[in-house]
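User: Good morning. I'm curious how KG4 would be positioned relative to this chain. Could you predict the structure with it bound?
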Amino acid sequence: MPLILTIESTCDETAAAVINDRLEVLSAVVASQEKFHEQFGGVVPEIASRAHVERILPVIDTTLKKANVKLGDLDAIAVANRPGLAGSLLVGLMGAKTLALACDLPLIAIDHLQAHIYACRLAAGKDVFPCIGLIVSGGHSNIYRCQSPLDFTPLGGTIDDAAGEAFDKVASMLGLGFPGGPALQRAAEKGDPKKFRLPRPLLDDDARLEFSFSGLKTAVRYQLFGAGKPEMDAAALDPQLVADMAASVQAAIIDCLAGKSLLALKQSGFKRLCIGGGVAANRPYRERMEQLAAQHNFELHIPPLSLCTDNAVMGAIAFEKFNAGQFADLELEISAGLERPHLAR
Ligand code: KG4
Ligand code: ZN
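Assistant: Good morning! Here's the predicted structure, ligand included:
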């Protein structure tokens, strides 16, 4: 039975998995770097790439041991080579190329964003294509027409910040720490989502499949600290005000994501929506989408939390390429793309 080792190092998680052609996961390891970046309030690219260098071999080694598999048992090495932080991507790619060369194995290139959507295929345990794919992560908010696992056409996306970036930046303004998304979700539980009037940019424009979250960030800043004031003293904020703002921002982001998802389904005529990426771990967002799916009669797929945030299991999309004979050569390069990651400022 063919086995693939998948490697993921696009941002700040070093991850590997061994998967068989029935898409069964023999082992999966994720080494998070949260504790390194926490003190800077966001991912620091240089620290991320250095941490990947230290972790990549132990992570691969542990993954193989857990699966009880030797390098010689593998049939291919797959690696996410786009998009992401250039230095982080390079570490995974070099590791994958070295193994492919040393073990004389074919190399497979994974698009990290397509892999996020493929997490829905894994979670569903059945085909989920064709579908509308929405990626909501720290670096991206993209909408795709996914005809098949090998055929993704971009339909739209954010014109400035990503949804996760908005969660992270507002969380930092509110003094909630890093990573911001989960912290903001927790704070919002005690807040009133109607307390602050915040914009839902582009939501009324039913021709454009686009998001814009940067104005939301500014609106939050002005309402909390006043227009044009340089200081932002989160420690001075009243805890109830923090909770109310967290709930209000979360509601605004969810409204935008939900509205454009419905628009993409309407425009395409598709009846199936697959959502991937870290923000898909947000509980109120998941609940809202489930309500909408029941109300508007479409099939919804959102992976379990561990498959929403970065991992190597979703690299199982490599089997689609393996079966189609789509291999990369050792000249394969990284493509950082238009990544706007949740970086430290
Ligand atoms: O997909 P991911 O792990 O990494 C990227 O490819 O960017 O997504 C990370 C993003 C971060 O912005 C993080 O704050 C956000 O996902 N996130 C959440 C939640 N969990 C993670 N945002 C809102 N609510 C959450 N529960
Ligand atoms: Zn990701």
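The longest helix spans residues 239-268. Residues 11, 137-139, 164, 167-168, 179-182, 185, 277-279, 281-282, 309-310, 342 surround KG4 (ligand 1) (CB under 6 Å).
Let me know if you'd like a different ligand tried.
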